[in-house]
């Protein structure tokens, strides 16, 4: 594998040198608003003094940055503008070979349009430029206006997008279009992040103060994306506003603080022309709040940093770092009633850097290097023979080149090299109950060609990957991708996307459990690679002066190489820990969205899904060939109908209302059909059965002495819980002061206290048998305050 | 002392979220068959019905044990035959009733070959009066024995107080796991003499486990009792990490169990209604296990004066 690494390093090293031979004169710079915030998607044009039409136009990126290379020496008018802002113009005279840096400040128009409008423009841009991609954008503003549990959470916001199913209020994990949760690639500034959850899944690791936007690619993603088969969620960091900025928030979950500034001028000496940095930290305080009542020694901490730098040669360099830990420390309790000292921690660490360069002819180069790690450890300080741990790491190096589709043709190509390693161990009492580790290399190449005319966009590409694990089976796949879009008029288009997607990592967490940590294994001898063939067909349209957007998409997916825990594995066969199977899903997603214009913003989405899994049933009698029979069943995320309504409304005087309503048809579950005495076998003194010794425990007064029973189940996931529905409300009040802005908010989760079912417990040993259960979140009001300046 | 209520804290968000209890349709009646063949012992087959389905056991079932070309039909016998001698029968523990099938008069009718033999494959067929059936098969693991031969320690081995001993045994072909049942006699008093006030039974029982045929050692007593650490007295658990206190005696039953037994006891997927078990008996009558095992017993003492002068120590690690 070292040759791949060497090749990649060589490419990275050579490209800047190759690129520097270009562009004798150029213009680069920033577009900001009057508050200093970056203005993305602004159009910057260069025109001759006597011309009415621009010679060239470019759009600013997320950081408000633009770059126009290869401009002839002379005098030029440079205009910058965007909807909702007054245009700004400058006149520049360029010398041969000069690199001019310009900074535009756009003044907001009297009728304020929210920054959501910017994202509406981006969505429109995606509509006009992407052939098959299904991209759903959540902005920082939408994130804050969405009612959430204690504080804004991007993964909670994702749940209300079409095609996305959440199975529990207690978990931020999500399923997209029938895929399992481990088939979602979650990226922070392009860096993969595993298990991005705090508190067993209740909250995500993403600090809202550091998020610029999130984008869910629910299907039809092009060849540059690999690694997961179901969806890609990209979360982008926010470099903050111009100059020094400060944000802080207090919620019932945690306190958080973020601050940022322009990079010091002294960095000129190392080639940094300008840029921004920003860091944020967060800590929960359940342990402190609950201390008067009982000990709950749990807390989470996370720290995130981001820098967005422009180098002297106009290259862009971004640096992202994150470290977060959850700690449940039961090792210091002073209670005789809790016999074991336990310390359980889990968390993520990641760091990465990205480099971008714009060249003449619409060529953009990029390179990224990153490392990410998730690990968890459960320790019993008094018992040295016990070690429960799980870790997965991924180191990635990738290089991308894009050619903008300016003359009908465009394209992209790239190379990546990933190393993934995992180490899972469950050992106690001198016995390894579960232990596996492995590491592998994943070199990948992709290429994509794009062509468009006034009515058509066609994208065709392929991704080639070779996954190899030391001493185990290799996997090589070439995954074709194809997408076509036909514009029926300027505002309406039909699209079709087909593709094969692969992934080489699995979570072995039992998704029947509504919360918990993923334990990861990579493909190899124990588990196959996942291969998914997908097709989707859609129709989308803008109307009412682009204020409204509507889309309908239908899709079908097949998944091969799925795994599940083998509950009857042979303890003498290290290779049969998992069952291999396949699955499928198909459905329809509809979206009606309003992101701009006066009045309420928001969306209505409706999804219909039918998913299935087919896996061997190890609890059934083997077939004649010695293998267990296959069982087909709907997975626990097979929510047939899902309707979401999301709305926010500015009322003036700083008031803003938010509402979110979700209806979901019942999720499948497996019910008990009977119970029986649960017995032990007594090895000594001639054998014989008996109830478990726990049954001999003393029974509290008034408590019924019930036998310990096991249960027999009916057909897997053959029954469904009642429909789920929930209304969340929020109200925010923003106070503008000389020193900054204070925002107070109140939220109510599950406003009408609907008892949505988390579990049903069947008590078949009662006469008559009964059913009770546990509901999801009850009505839950929360308060919080945010400060920024 | 501060109130510590960890389970409640863990379920904080669930507080007040219990759903109303409702009556539902009757449970489906079925039979559970549990049979564990132990090398050197006659076959026993326990039938218990699901809760409320006692009538399934009223009429006799046909229970047949097949080894190679020979079939033995077991007869319904007194339920005591299927129960552990350490257990006082309480009908409330068997809400679906209990029936026991065994060789009626093993001393006179059944040849010695019908005592369970190590390495032999057996098949069990159960037919209920309504014609429904359950059947399955097991191959008894090969004999298992501690590395300390019985001839070397006919009266037991010596474990110096507050020390550990590595117990070692042979790899028994066909074993899916090894279970070590430890019973310590006099532990409560011995700990009290050391100033440790432990709320434990006497004798005190702990269970250890090794997974897989090739995992053939465990440290006595520290590594025995991994599943008991949440339940037993914390002071006793910590003390056992150092060894056994002076004055205690112990017995270790080493059991090589087959895959059927392991599947049954370790359960299946998660279900909120209760524990599941992975069966090895299949059919339309219900569910069940047909497991098998071989075993060996080791006795020991922390008081050398109660052992012969030439009693070996319990440490076997050097023999592996």
Describe the structure.
The complex is a heterodimer of chains A (789) and B (320). Chain A is mainly beta. Chain A contains 5 helices and 49 strands. In chain A, the strands form 11 sheets. Chain A has a 22-stranded antiparallel β-barrel. In chain A, strands 8-15-16-11-12 form a 5-stranded mixed sheet. The radius of gyration of chain B is 23 Å and the shape is globular. In chain B, the strands form 2 sheets. In chain B, strands 2, 3, 4, 5, 6, 7, 8, 9, 11, 12, 14 and 15 form a 12-stranded mixed sheet that branches. In chain B, strands 10-13 form a two-stranded antiparallel ribbon. With 320 residues, chain B is mostly beta strands. The termini of chain B are far apart. Strand 48 of chain A pairs antiparallel with strand 1 of chain B, so a sheet runs across the interface.
User: What structural class do you assign from the helix and strand content of chain B?
Assistant: mainly beta
Largest sheet of chain B: 12 strands, mixed
> For the residues shown, what is the average pLDDT of chain B?
88
The strand count of chain A comes to 49
Biggest interface, and residues per chain? A-B, 95 and 112 residues
Tell me how many strands of chain B there are: 15
User: Count the helices of chain A. How many?
Assistant: 5
How would you classify the helix and strand content of chain A by structural class? Answer: mainly beta
Secondary structure tally, helices of chain B = 4
Low-confidence stretches of chain B: 1-15
| Rg of chain A (C-alpha, Å) | 28 Å
List the SSEs and their pairings.
The complex is a heterodimer of chains A (789) and B (320).
Chain A: H1 2-19, E1 26-33, E2 43-47, E3 56-59, E4 65-68, E5 74-81, E6 88-94, E7 99-106, H2 116-129, E8 134-139, H3 140-145, H4 154-158, E9 164-165, E10 175-176, E11 184-188, E12 191-192, E13 197-198, E14 203-204, E15 211-219, E16 231-237, E17 245-251, E18 254-262, E19 272-284, H5 286-289, E20 298-311, E21 316-329, E22 343-359, E23 363-379, E24 387-403, E25 409-428, E26 431-452, E27 456-469, E28 475-489, E29 492-503, E30 505-507, E31 520-522, E32 530-543, E33 548-565, E34 578-594, E35 601-616, E36 630-633, E37 641-652, E38 655-664, E39 668-669, E40 672-677, E41 680-681, E42 689-690, E43 709-713, E44 719-720, E45 724-737, E46 740-749, E47 757-763, E48 770-775, E49 780-788
Parallel strand pairs in A: 1-7, 11-16
Antiparallel strand pairs in A: 1-4, 2-3, 2-5, 5-6, 8-15, 9-10, 11-12, 13-14, 15-16, 17-18, 17-49, 18-19, 19-20, 20-21, 21-22, 22-23, 23-24, 24-25, 25-26, 26-27, 27-28, 28-29, 29-32, 30-31, 32-33, 33-34, 34-35, 35-36, 35-37, 37-38, 38-45, 39-44, 40-43, 41-42, 45-46, 46-49, 47-48
Chain B: H1 6-10, E1 18-23, E2 31-38, E3 44-49, E4 62-67, E5 70-77, E6 99-102, E7 121-127, E8 133-139, E9 157-158, E10 165-168, E11 177-185, H2 187-193, E12 204-211, E13 217-220, H3 234-240, E14 249-257, H4 259-266, E15 286-301
Parallel strand pairs in B: 2-15, 9-15
Antiparallel strand pairs in B: 2-3, 3-6, 4-5, 4-7, 5-6, 7-8, 10-13, 11-12, 11-14, 14-15
């Amino acid at each position: 594998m070292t040759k791949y690494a060497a090749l990649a390093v060589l490419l990275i090293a050579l490209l800047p040198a190759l690129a520097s031979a270009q562009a004798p004169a150029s213009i680069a710079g920033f577009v900001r608003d009057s508050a200093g915030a970056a203005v993305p998607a602004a159009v910057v044009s260069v025109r001759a003094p006597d011309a009415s039409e621009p010679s060239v136009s470019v759009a600013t990126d997320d950081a408000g940055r633009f770059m126009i290379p290869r401009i002839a020496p002379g005098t030029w008018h440079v205009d910058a503008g965007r909807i909702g802002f007054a245009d700004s113009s400058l006149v520049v005279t360029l010398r041969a070979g000069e690199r001019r840096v310009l900074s535009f400040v756009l003044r907001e128009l009297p009728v304020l349009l929210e920054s959501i409008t910017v994202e509406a423009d981006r969505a429109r841009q995606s509509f006009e430029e992407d052939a098959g991609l299904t991209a759903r954008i959540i902005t920082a503003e939408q994130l804050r206006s969405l009612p959430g549990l204690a504080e804004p959470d991007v993964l909670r916001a994702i749940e209300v997008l079409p095609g996305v199913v959440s199975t529990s209020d207690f978990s931020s994990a999500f399923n997209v279009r029938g895929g399992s949760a481990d088939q979602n690639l979650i990226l922070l500034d392009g860096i993969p992040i595993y298990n991005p959850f705090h508190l067993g899944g209740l909250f995500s690791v993403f600090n809202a103060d550091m998020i610029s936007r999130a984008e869910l690619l629910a299907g039809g993603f092009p060849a540059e994306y690999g690694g997961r088969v179901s969806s890609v969620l990209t979360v982008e960091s926010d470099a903050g506003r111009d100059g020094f900025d400060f944000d802080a928030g207090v919620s019932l979950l945690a306190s958080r603080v973020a601050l940022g500034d322009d990079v010091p001028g002294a960095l000129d000496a190392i080639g940094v022309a300008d840029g921004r940095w920003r860091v944020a930290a967060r800590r929960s305080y359940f342990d402190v709040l609950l201390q008067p009542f009982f000990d709950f020694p749990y807390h989470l901490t996370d720290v995130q940093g981001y820098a967005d730098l422009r180098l002297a040669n106009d290259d862009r360099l971004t640096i992202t770092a994150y470290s977060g830990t959850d700690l449940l420390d039961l090792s210091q309790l002073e209670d005789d009633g809790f016999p074991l000292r336990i310390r359980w921690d889990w968390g993520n660490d990641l760091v990465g850097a990205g480099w971008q360069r714009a060249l003449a002819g619409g060529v953009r180069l990029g390179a990224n290097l990153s490392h990410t790690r998730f690990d968890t450890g459960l320790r019993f300080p008094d018992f040295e023979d016990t070690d429960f741990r799980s870790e997965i790491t991924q180191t990635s190096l990738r290089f991308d080149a894009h050619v903008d589709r300016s003359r009908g043709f465009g394209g992209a190509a790239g190379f990546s090299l990933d190393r993934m390693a995992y180490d899972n161990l469950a050992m106690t009492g001198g016995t390894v109950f579960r232990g596996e580790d492995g590491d592998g290399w994943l070199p990948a190449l992709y290429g994509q060609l794009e062509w468009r005319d006034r009515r058509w966009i066609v994208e065709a590409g392929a991704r080639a990957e070779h996954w190899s694990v030391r001493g185990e089976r290799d996997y090589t796949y070439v995954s074709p991708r194809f997408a076509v879009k036909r514009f029926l008029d300027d505002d309406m288009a039909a699209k079709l996307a087909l593709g094969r997607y692969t992934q080489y990592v699995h979570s072995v967490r039992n998704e029947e459990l509504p919360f918990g940590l993923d334990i990861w294994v990579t493909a190899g001898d124990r588990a196959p690679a996942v291969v998914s063939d997908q097709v989707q067909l859609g129709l989308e349209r803008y109307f009412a002066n682009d204020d409204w957007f509507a889309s309908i998409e239908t899709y079908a997916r097949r998944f091969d190489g799925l795994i599940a825990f083998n509950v009857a594995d042979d303890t003498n066969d290290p290779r049969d820990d998992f069952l291999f199977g396949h699955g499928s899903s198909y459905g329809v997603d509809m979206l009606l969205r309003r992101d701009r214009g006066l009045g309420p913003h928001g969306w209505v989405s409706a999804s219909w899904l039918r998913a299935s899994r087919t896996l061997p049933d190890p609890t059934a009698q083997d077939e004649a060939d010695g293998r267990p029979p296959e069982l087909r069943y709907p997975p626990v995320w097979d929510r047939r109908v899902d309707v979401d309504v999301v709305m926010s409304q500015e009322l003036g005087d700083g008031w803003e209302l938010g509402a979110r309503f979700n209806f979901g048809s019942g999720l499948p579950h497996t019910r008990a059909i009977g119970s029986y005495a649960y017995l032990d076998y007594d090895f000594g003194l001639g054998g014989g059965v008996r109830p478990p010794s726990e049954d001999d425990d003393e029974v509290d007064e008034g408590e019924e002495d019930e036998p310990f029973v096991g249960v027999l189940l009916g057909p897997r996931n053959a029954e469904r819980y009642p429909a789920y529905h929930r209304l969340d409300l929020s109200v925010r009040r923003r106070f503008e002061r000389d020193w900054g802005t204070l925002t107070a908010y109140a939220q109510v989760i599950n406003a009408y206290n609907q008892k949505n079912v988390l579990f049903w417990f069947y008590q078949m040993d009662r006469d008559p048998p009964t059913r009770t259960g546990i509901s999801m979140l009850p009505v839950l009001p929360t308060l919080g305050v945010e400060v920024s300046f | 002392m501060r109130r510590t209520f960890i389970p409640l804290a863990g379920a904080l968000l669930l507080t007040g979220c219990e759903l109303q209890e409702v009556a539902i349709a009757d449970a489906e009646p079925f039979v559970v068959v549990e049979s564990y063949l132990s090398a050197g012992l006659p076959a026993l087959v326990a039938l218990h019905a699901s809760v409320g389905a006692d009538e399934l056991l009223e009429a006799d079932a046909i229970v047949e044990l097949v080894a190679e070309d020979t079939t033995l039909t077991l007869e319904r016998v007194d339920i005591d035959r299927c129960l552990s001698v350490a257990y006082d029968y309480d009908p409330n523990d068997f809400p679906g009733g209990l029936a026991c099938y065994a060789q009626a008069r093993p001393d006179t009718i059944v040849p010695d070959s019908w005592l369970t033999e190590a390495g032999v494959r057996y098949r069990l067929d159960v037919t209920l009066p309504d014609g429904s059936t359950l059947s399955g098969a097991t191959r008894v693991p090969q004999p298992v024995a501690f590395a300390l031969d019985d001839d070397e320690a006919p009266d037991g081995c010596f474990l110096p107080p507050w020390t550990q001993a590595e117990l070692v045994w042979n790899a028994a072909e066909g074993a899916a796991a090894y279970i070590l049942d430890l019973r310590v006699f006099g532990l409560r008093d011995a700990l009290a003499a050391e100033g440790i006030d432990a709320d434990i039974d006497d004798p005190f029982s702990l269970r250890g486990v090794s997974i897989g045929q090739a995992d053939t050692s465990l440290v006595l007593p520290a590594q025995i009792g991994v599943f008991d650490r949440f339940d037993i007295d914390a002071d006793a658990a910590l003390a056992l990490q150092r060894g056994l206190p002076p004055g205690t005696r112990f017995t270790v039953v080493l059991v090589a169990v087959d895959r059927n037994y392991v599947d049954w006891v370790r359960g299946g997927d998660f279900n909120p209604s209760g524990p599941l078990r992975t069966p090895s008996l299949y059919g339309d009558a219900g569910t069940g296990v047909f497991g098998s095992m071989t075993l060996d017993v080791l006795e020991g003492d922390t008081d050398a004066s109660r052992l012969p002068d030439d009693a070996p120590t319990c440490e076997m690690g050097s023999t592996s």
